[in-house]
Amino acid sequence: MAMASSNMMNIGLASSYKKKKTMLFEVSCSRKRDRDRERGSNSIHPYKVIEITPPPKSLGVRCLPPNLQCGESVTIEGQTYTISAVTLRYQLRKGKYEQSEKRLDVLSTGRYLVNLYFENLLEQS
Questions:
Q1: Which domain of life is it from (predicted)?
Q2: Which pick of 13, 34, 48, 76 has the fewest CB atoms within 10 Å?
């Protein structure tokens, strides 16, 4: 029975896609106790993670702790990255600014250390 309901949901998505030509997906990163809370200002937004080494590469949307800062290490799919920038985007909705996106710009830890070494050499010369 679960299979049939799953197929019906997919059909509904396909038909709405044909009508509107755009689909929006929402990823929710909440713990069991957070699921009972109202959505809105208490909701947790996932991070859009981008490795910024040329060429930039998207690492997908990840659920990470909410208070990450530059210089911290993050492990994604077994590889360690260092955060270069954290970007928060807000949108004005109903007279209030609401957070719409969190983005992390990351570098592999090896690349981050090499960049620090070269910056240090540049300052010394």
A1: Eukaryota
A2: 13
Helices (H), 46-98: none
Q: How far apart are the first and last CA of the chain?
A: 71
What pLDDT sits at residue 67? 86
Average of per-residue pLDDT across 23-30: 55
Phi, psi of 29 (to 5 degrees): -115, 85
Cβ-based neighbour number of residue 2 at 10 Å: 6
Q: 74 near 101, Cβ under 8 Å?
A: no
Kindly give the pairing relationship between strand 57-62 and strand 79-93: unpaired
Rounded distance between C-alpha atoms, residue 95 and residue 91, angstroms: 10
Q: For the whole model, what pTM was predicted?
A: 0.63
Residues 6+ apart with CB under 8 A from 26: none
